[in-house]
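Technical note accompanying the year-one report. For the benefit of new consortium partners, we illustrate the data format agreed upon in the data management plan: each record pairs a sequence with a structure-token string. No post-processing was applied to the example shown here.
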Amino acid sequence: MNLFKPLKLDLSPVDKPKVLKPEVLLHMPIPLALVGWNPRLLLGEAWWNRTRKAAYKLNGGFCLACGGSGQLDAHEQYDMDFVKCISVFKDVIPLCRGCHQYIHWEALPDVYKVKILERGNGILWEAGLRVEEIKAKLVLGTYDTSHFSIDINTGIITGPVSTSDILQDSYTYETMAGYYSDSWKLDLSVLNTKAAIDLARKHERIIHDGYKSINVNLNKVRD
């Protein structure tokens, strides 16, 4: 063994995100009928604390959208079918505060909105995501974007643009109608727990494959 042979050291950062998924920023606002209907509130503080702490570790302690570090939030992800009006809970992911605020930007004070939107739009533009998708998010977030315009080359928000133009370019009538529908259901089938199944038993707005199976089996016995 040659003790004087130079060592080849890997000086690249040890701490870095495992994966980046900027597309999670395109998560649409929760339909009005499902505001307040989420696992965080329905399953209680103890469940949420366990789940969010596990989410923080998923990407090495980094934001899944931008790769930033620092204070992380836990965000509930859904697959939303705006035609069938079913929101399927998927998982909980780690996001930095800025990215999380971008998803829920409609709830921010007006003084912060433009800054948060421009930051998030910039992340999406760098990832090559479409301007139409961002426009759709703006429409569903505020219900009226007459005071917004987006530079299609930079994502910077500038002067006024009509809501009708955005709707025509980016979102179908069926989807918009679905967003305002009162018939939405929350699917918690990914949570294979008694607590989640019990919620489906108690609330018509919640569905669960496990509870469906129970009903099917009961009906077979009755037949």
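Partners are asked to follow this layout when depositing records. The radius of gyration is 22 Å.
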